[in-house]
Amino acid sequence: MESSYPWGEPFQLRLLAYQLREPQKALNLVEPGFFTSPMMVDISRNIRDVFKSHPNESILISKTTLKELVKESLGRKGREHWPAYRRMIRRIYKTKLKDKEVLVDQAKKFVRENRYREALVKAERAVSARKYGQVHEVFEQLKSFDVPDGLQSWEWRNLPKLSDFPPKEVLWLVDGVIPEQSALALSGDEGVGKTIFCLSLSRSLTEGIDFQGRRVFQTPVLYLGLDVSQVTLQSYLRAMRWEPNKYFRILTMWTGEDKQPPMLDDAVQMEKLYAIAREKQPVMIFDTLRDFFEGEENSSTDTKPVLDAVRKLRSLGATIILIVHPPKSGNSLIRGTGNISQKLDIPYLMARDKWQGKDVVILTCPKKNRFGSTHFNLAMRQLFIPIPATDPFLLIKEVKDWKPSGNRKQQDTNVDVIQYVKDHPGTNQKQIQEALKMGDRSVRTALSEAKDDGILKSVGGSRKELRWYDVENEDAVAKDVLVEDMVKELGPISKTS
Question: I need a surface site. Which of 6, 86, 368, 380 has the fewest CB within 10 A?
């Protein structure tokens, strides 16, 4: 039987174990009649009947109870085979389910094939009876059939409640910097040190050692570097004095024809990464994002499958770091369409600065941080220390006494003001000051610089009464100007009117 059937007894045994442990989720997935063994059909039917009799309860059927139910449901001939039923039930309870998502995907194919088999049987009967019209009806019904993506029926009683999910705390791979199962971006100008930073981070993650004084949880890292050559990568590792252990793996243009990094917008190629994410739950670093999809980076349509792939990797347990570049002008952190930064959990920015006459690199998250505060700053010095007769030594060291300069404080203010205007089109300076609790001078400077950069525009009124808009929000500007013109034309409206 097993050799002629694509889903044999081992698979069907796991499917029965899934139905037993999660009967509500399996309701629309497991049909007793689809099992090839009569014993499995009987056991599945009993599990289903118990759940249907108690639809509002979480049913966990004990082995003793299931034995009694199955035995009672059997006729005289069926009870002659009771020892085999008992052994089957024992095997079901011993079956472990380590890969439910894979099992469910297989089960959907299993259900679909059974539907087609049923349709072919019905069609053959209709042909034998010369009822040809029924043949067309059978296949028309088949066209509309699809296995539901949800594992439970969409009824109010089956929808999740908040109490179904225990409170979950943020788990940090790098304390305060890299949350587990998150999607991050690391943006910065060319040459600022993004790759070096990520390699240093990878070393701490794979070895489980502190990163810039922050506690680290040991995690596998997969570095996908289409933008780095073999010479460059190996020279970085030599400079770091790092010999990676078994937890560090790479995929680049030069790691072999059968080991090429998959494109994020290629669903077939991505299955390989999904399997790794599901098994290892690693940190995956994409250097750089633009190299990992074929579409136009300014198109939300072209970048949607890319972001869908990133979110699926995250849902399977991976932590994603996308190395990106900022636009040449404007206030965005990531070059291209805005939906990239919108879908990420933390878009970090790396930028050069001066502190006490020395070059430093500052890591900030000025836009948003779904896991903490946007007032995050990590100042570092990236030092290449020359050593005679050998490679230079690369050292990344936190600058603990660093404080933002006046210019950087104003830059942070500019970001907050621009974001507030985008979220509240038509607001004026006074309202911005009150909402953000900022002084007149800093808000006025932020608005003026944003206007000069072509990010914001103002309409009507005196200085503090000017209404401010994002230049991209032309509809809101036109609407407010139209209302203002109508008010001027109609004149003041009296209370009596």
Answer: 6
Q: Is the domain of 133 the same as that of 234? A: no
In the numeric block, which tokens belong to residue 100? 């439910």
Contact 384/224 with Cβ under 8 angstroms? no
- Say if residue 176's pLDDT is above 90: yes
Q: Which of 341, 333, 279 is nearest to 310 (CA)?
A: 341
Task: Reduce the DSSP state of residue 132 to 3 states and report it.
Answer: helix
d(CA 476, CA 471): 10
Q: What is the spatial distance between Cα 109 and Cα 1, in angstroms, rounded to a whole number?
A: 19
Residue 152's pLDDT is what? Answer: 46
For the CA atoms of 393, 398, 403, 407, the dihedral, rounded to the nearest 10 degrees, stands at: 50
Same domain for 317 and 189, yes or no, is yes
Partners of 398 in the β-ladder: 380
Task: Tell which residue, 68, 73, 64, 65, has the closest CA to residue 41.
Answer: 73
In a domain, 166, yes or no: no
- Asked whether the beta carbons of 291 and 282 are under 8 A apart, the reply is no
Verify that 262 and 300 share a domain, yes or no.
yes
**Does residue 390 share a domain with residue 462?**
no
For residue 1, the model assigns a pLDDT of: 35
HSE-up of 482 (CA within 13 Å, CB side)?
6
Specify whether the CB–CB gap between 242 and 233 falls below 8 A.
no
What is the maximum span of the chain, computed from C-alpha positions, in angstroms? 96
The pLDDT value recorded for residue 496 is 46
Which pLDDT belongs to residue 158?
Answer: 65
Residue 191 DSSP code: T
3-state secondary structure of 351: strand
The interaxial angle of helices 406-423 and 440-452, nearest 10 deg, is: 70
Mean pLDDT for 427-455 is 85
Query: Which of 388, 411, 384 lies closest to 193, judged by CA?
Result: 384
Domain range for 51 is 2-158
The answer to whether residues 281 and 413 belong to one domain is no
Q: Domain count of the chain?
A: 3
Terminal CA-CA length for the chain:
88
Own/partner long-range contacts of 225-229 (Cβ < 8 Å, ≥24 apart): 225/195, 225/250, 225/251, 225/252, 225/261, 225/285, 225/287, 226/252, 226/253, 226/261, 226/287, 226/288, 226/291, 226/292, 227/195, 227/287, 227/288, 227/291, 227/323, 228/195, 228/252, 228/287, 229/254
| Residue of higher predicted confidence among 437 and 243 | 243
- What's the burial of 388, exposed, middle or buried (CB within 10 Å: 0-12/13-18/19+)? exposed
Q: Are 393 and 387 in contact (CB under 8 A)?
A: yes
Which residues are CB-contacts of 46 (< 8 A; sequence separation ≥ 6)?
66, 69, 70, 73
List alpha helices for 22-131, DSSP H.
38-53, 63-73, 76-79, 82-94, 100-128
